[in-house]
From TrEMBL:
Main localization (coarse): cytoplasm
Organism of origin: Schistocephalus solidus
Ranges where the STI1 domain occurs: 131-170, 472-510
Top-level taxon in the UniProt lineage: Eukaryota
Record-given protein name: Stress-induced-phosphoprotein 1
Amino acid sequence: MSTSLELKNQGNTALSQGKYDQAIEHYTSAIKLDEKNHVLYSNRSAAYAKVGQYDDALKDAEQCVKLNPTWAKGYSRKGAALEFLGRFKEAEQAYLKAMDLEPSNEQFQESAMNVRARMALGSLPARVAAHPVLKEYLKDPEYVEKLRSLQENPALLQFLMKDSKIKETVFTLFTAQEPMDESSPPPSPPKKAEPKPKEPELADEEKEALKEKELGNAAYKKKDFQTAISHYDRAFELDPKNITFLTNKSAVYFEMRDYSKCIEVCEEAVSKGRELRSDYKIIAKAFARIGHCYENQGDLQNAKKYYDKSLSEFRAPDVIKKSQALDKKLKEMERQAYINPDLAEAAKLEGNKAFEAGNYPLAMKHYTEAIKRNPEDPKLYSNRAACYTKLMEFPCALKDCETCISLAPDFVKGYLRKAACLVAMKDLNQARKAYRKALELEPTCEEARQGLIQCATSEPDPEAARQRAMYDPEIKEILSDPAMRMILNQMEDPDAMKEHLSNPEIASKLMKLIDAGIVAIR
């Protein structure tokens, strides 16, 4: 039976090879054997993050820090999961906690800096446009492209700081606000509260545009869609720098299920927004709506493409969830499209040849391919379980046996292979159950009879077996039954026992206690 350390190492190997689902499976098996090992939750958190399951990654990271609050890496994992979920402020706090525990760790410092940058850089284009000196640089297309790259990926900051304009931008916007003097001056007396500056007065056209927008919103709520569109069109004519009028108009077409028109208006909003350097969140919203249109039309590839474009602008939680759900749909469609029973049979035959030749890794590869081609064939799981058993990967073999049995509850070989795995894992009580089930299905099965005999003679420590059995919920339930306790007290009376054993239900419960070593027959 594999130890938790062996399973962890197998998970680490799978993770390094990019086999993330396998890594998750190995770490999960290891956790079952060692539930208090914080490192296992940390590693599984990393694997979940690799496959985009950020909620699960966060749960594991939180469990990790709960088990070991002094381990810095656990907080780093938590920060990474929160960052993927777009919860940047919480991510920053997690990274800061990691830095408190390991102040010299450069990776934690870089992670905290990056997440701060992501929060700060979100409004970068608007802040540059509002600055009297920096706005002139926006005439340089190369500068604009670098600014956009920095906004999308703050990790590029160190590289892009080689550009003098980018360097000036960063220092002007992010350091000038908080100057650091060489010597601290004496505290200045508190200033009198100054009245807040008034909001800039809107032009008449802008005011009129907002009125048209409100009229459009009111018509939209009443489902008077054509009227809403005319008001949004009028608003955009009055104030062509406000692309929210276009995104509102696209929402009307979406509600009307006119997806092609909705996409057209959203694309106009994106194009205009790029030209005007509008708020990235509005552009993200337009991309997300295009993705939603394609998803409703069943074009999942394009839907995924535009959701990803939206997330490159702004990681809105609802779009993250849509993108993740779409990933699952696409994977399932890919899995379904791959199914081909004829090719599965061919792969199975290749697996049989390799198995007979003693090349179990190759046989397992062929059986795995066969399972992908025909995941409803129980015999394929049984065959792969045999390979895992030969390779002494008993937890994996047991999992395949369980799948085999769930697909074919009357398949005797599934129970025999399950029992063999359990014997190898020293779980003789559960092995007996599997052998008995095989005998129920095939009373003349010699392998099952011999297996039961082996179970009866293989237990090196009967007392240890009894102690293990006491944790079995089924055994606990039997022993907590007052009627069964009374029957057990009558074990010395042969006549009473004969009468009790004539009841199939009582006989079955007694047999379970005998198998578990709780009751001995003399």
